[in-house]
Amino acid sequence: MVKEVIENVSFSKEIANKSHGPGSALKELAVVQDADRLDAIGAIGIARTFTFGGAKNRPLYNPDKPLMTEVADLEGEAYSEAQANIPPTYDHFYEKLLRLQGMMKTSAGKARAEKRHIFMETFLEQMRAEISGKD
Question: Is the pLDDT confidence value at 67 over 90?
Answer without folding.
Answer: yes
